[in-house]
């Protein structure tokens, strides 16, 4: 279809480029790094060739979340947001953006959130999972009490929050010892991000801020497949969980799921069967995935044309109030 | 439907009963412990009431896998297998069994495997994930080279291997800190067991032993939903993975997936869409799940009557050569 | 779910009661005739017991469409609409109505359409297929040129049109000779109504009146399953078909499909896969089907809770502008 | 996939070629007529290019069924079967065949059935619906009592019977008056063939001959979508139907459904959800459909690789005992 809008479309700035290097074979890296840095011709050409009207841009991963020095995190986030805003200003019909935020410093994160939305025109915020704080080895998940004011502000500003994957802390990924091919997008991204999302749901965040709009990539990081079982077990042994409602209700009412990197029709159908097509949004995960691969699959997968238009465009316009 | 056969139907012996206590609210524990110890009336009554002809029994989890003392592990495994064999002998039309094995001692495991299959008539083997060895803190996954002779023997005996969940090592579950409601079947079982299975596939086990028959519970522990993405990423950056084929091929050709604890039609359809109904087997996860809940769901879920008979019975008879 | 709204909920008046008698075994008729005549307690009790907030009422079939005398048709239609309006006035929160129209006389049909919508408050119009005109043996389908002004008026008033089944003319049902069990809802209703709908699409009605809102019962009378094939054949040999677009586009953009009498999850999924959940509306086909059968199925079928609310209520409120 | 076997793959002989002319625009006819007459290079080239190992051939439609002169019907059937047998003998690894039968003369039909299977090596029989007998206007459906000995013989020989579409008798297709674009494969084929199949099921044929193997093309001619409703209505008002069982049971146990001309994934899923993948067989409907269209769709549609191999090949080998 034409006029698709993509929701997980990354760029990098020189300060964050290195984060992505490990995910690419050496021979591919020069081409990749050129693609991810580009916010002009290369990207727009690919969009034109594949029927994408707009990308809602976001910084690569983990980027800011891995800069444990608070001050540096704040500065790099600002710089990234400024560069992104500039690119959007040059092509306002083709780009919008998610703010990157220095979650190491919750107050600064709130300030940068404000600045990004109110001054730079960001339409949402994307955070790459937990953030390291003050040292390489300290980290906090977003269900930590220090983030309650942040969530309050996200709800108040009424902008969608995108929970993007990053790799687990080394201390949390020993299960994969000896199997580096399972690092990152192949496997550990999904475990980390689904777990983080479960922590948030269980912590009662969505009871406290019932209007949060929360986006997950990769068709929900396996949660559409297994959330029934998780909820079924918790119903039987709740062990004092703070969440007031059954977990699937938060997914039904607060979450949207994108197709980034999950170009698979069976998984898409599982997701539609659990949450309905209104909750699904198109995304490519460029440049970690090819725009073309995402688009050829999406344009031809066995869903109704009505749902294709909704997932590929209309749901996104509605969720982000794009005009 | 009548004459269903169940594939993940646990019992305990006094030595392993304690393993399951933590999963139950105190007020439920007396009833539960009575159910899991019973290998006679209670169980058969429940089967009769719900159209189950046969249970293929297995010990609870982690049981043997958590007995780090090798000698004790060998003894308790033998005792459990003997008790199970006795129960089967009393009701040979209603019970068959999976052997429990002391994987702490690979040679002893092979010997007990032989004894269980050849002398006791076990139709398969069920292992609860990794095993602790010699101390609480040492453990090995089954892709470890010390287990190659074991896999060779399983293939040679041509009996199905059931990879049953257990909780991650404490050092592997810090991601859930502060969220005990996500322990066990609610979440960490699935992560642990899917990861273990991926380790096995990636290690080349199924290239070396191409006739292994490998069973996963819980509709594949999320792998039907996400294996395409894992394979897609590995195809792009293989990082020297030993596996010779794409991971989904092992699932198509070496694996069977049971419905234990995943009484959810959308997930069942995802699994059928990825691997076909021939690869799906009925199971309840009794007594952690109610026989009735499993059966009412399965008897009424929206699949063809032809597939219901296959999943509920015929596939199992064929896979296990039951007569 | 609570607060369901039903879209194909029939009543009869003494003048039309006889039309339905043939569909019922003698022993059931007294109870049935009581149910279909009732527009008060019996009906509301059934709704209350099954979570239905509202029925959008319609006369039984073929009723007016089989009264070949124009004048009589006009009178009976008026009487039926008046009786219905009275019932709605007594329970405005529980009932709305589709107008019955004397299509034998296109001008009178337009006048009654106006009166029903503007004076009686009808929210749509329901016609039982072709109408016999002037004699038992003359009949016209609604793609006949004499009905173009009628369609223009329906579009202008912006009220949904429900194409309800009736049996084929005797001269059109000889294929079933000797097989009376295939008459009516069992088989010939569907063939007749799907064919009539295809005639309308092929005739270019939806090109001329692109804002028509057209409703089909019984999940689209098999069209979701086979419209691709019909369109594929017409694309290859169009033989001068007047329709300007591919037939599925009319279904995507002009049609809504109800669950009346088709309480089957696989067919519902086929319909969602072809047209999306926004196009599907709840209906029971009471009293030809039991309210309870329709509701128990719908409340439990394997769709997302989000879609259940849309299909069961929200889509209908939106389509009919109910307030 | 490679090595696909096709089940509805037509040829013509000069005597039957004219039957197909009306379905093609004039400019396409020369190419089409060359294709349908060819039983050598053209066909095998197309198979090679699209991964088809074998075609099970059948005569075009209506062919023999429309030759109302009994003697001529017998002769043309014999000739067609002989020509087909010769082509098979030249390429036994690429072709097998369905016998064409002169159903106008039930005794002769049985004799030709015997000769075809026993002497010519036909693996099944394909009949194009009802047959005209003795005059243009007389016709009999296959539930007529005169065909009981024929069905007995089919069951005894244990060869599958393929019910192929033909157009309704003119007296049975007045519903389409003025809409020639709905004739044939676009619409009336399906109505006719589904109705004929319902007649057979209702008549009790499958009770009398419970081992009949009955094949329907076009994914079951809409029956997978609507048979639940038909059965539901008959359960409520059976009106003395001879069939002893619910109609879906005959479909589950006696029928197989092919993909001919229905290259649509949503309809395929509906069919799998109702009858399971074991009951589905690959077919193209060549040369009315392109081999390439059928194969590109089938090779890429969203089903499991395991089911693809079954539907595309293994189910067919099993059903026809191909070696
Ligand atoms: Zn990404
Ligand atoms: Zn278990
Ligand atoms: Zn009705
Ligand atoms: Zn054909």
UniProtKB/TrEMBL annotation, chains A, B, C, D:
One of its GO terms (molecular function) is carboxy-lyase activity. The keyword Lyase applies. One of its GO terms (cellular component) is cytosol. Keywords: Lyase. Residues 42-322 form the Amidohydrolase-related domain. Gene3D superfamilies: Metal-dependent hydrolases. One of its GO terms (biological process) is secondary metabolic process. Pfam families: Amidohydro_2 (PF04909). PANTHER family: 2-AMINO-3-CARBOXYLMUCONATE-6-SEMIALDEHYDE DECARBOXYLASE, AMIDOHYDROLASE-RELATED DOMAIN-CONTAINING PROTEIN-RELATED. This is Amidohydrolase. It comes from Sinanaerobacter chloroacetimidivorans.
């Amino acid at each position: 279809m034409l006029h698709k809008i993509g929701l997980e479309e990354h760029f990098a700035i020189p300060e964050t480029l290195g984060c992505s290097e490990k995910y690419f074979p050496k021979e591919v890296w020069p081409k990749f790094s050129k693609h991810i840095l580009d916010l002009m011709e290369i990207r727009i050409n690919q969009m034109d060739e594949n029927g994408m009207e707009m990308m809602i841009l976001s910084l690569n991963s983990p980027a800011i979340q891995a800069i444990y020095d608070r001050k540096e995190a704040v500065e790099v986030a600002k710089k990234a947001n400024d560069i992104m805003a500039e690119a959007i200003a040059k092509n306002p019909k083709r780009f919008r953006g998610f703010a990157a935020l220095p979650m190491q410093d919750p107050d600064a994160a709130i300030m940068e959130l404000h600045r990004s939305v109110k001054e730079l025109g960001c339409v949402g915020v994307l955070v790459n999972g937990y953030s390291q704080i003050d040292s390489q080895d300290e980290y906090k998940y977003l269900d930590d009490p220090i983030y309650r004011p942040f969530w309050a502000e996200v709800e108040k500003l009424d902008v969608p929050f995108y929970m993007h994957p990053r790799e687990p802390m080394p201390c949390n990924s020993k299960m994969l010892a000896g199997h580096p091919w399972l690092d990152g997008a192949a496997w550990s991204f999904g475990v980390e991000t689904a777990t983080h999302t479960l922590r948030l749901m269980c912590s009662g965040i969505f009871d406290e801020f019932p209007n949060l709009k929360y986006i997950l990539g990769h068709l929900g990081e396996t949660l559409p497949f297994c959330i029934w079982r998780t909820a079924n077990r918790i119903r039987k042994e709740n062990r004092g969980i703070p969440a007031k409602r059954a977990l699937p209700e938060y997914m039904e009412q607060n979450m949207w799921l994108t197709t980034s990197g999950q170009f698979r029709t069976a998984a898409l159908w599982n997701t539609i069967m659990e949450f309905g097509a209104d909750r699904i949004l198109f995304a490519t995960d460029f440049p970690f995935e090819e725009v073309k691969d995402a688009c050829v699959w999406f344009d031809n997968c066995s869903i109704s044309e009505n749902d294709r238009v909704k997932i590929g465009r209309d749901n996104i316009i509605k969720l982000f109030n794009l005009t």
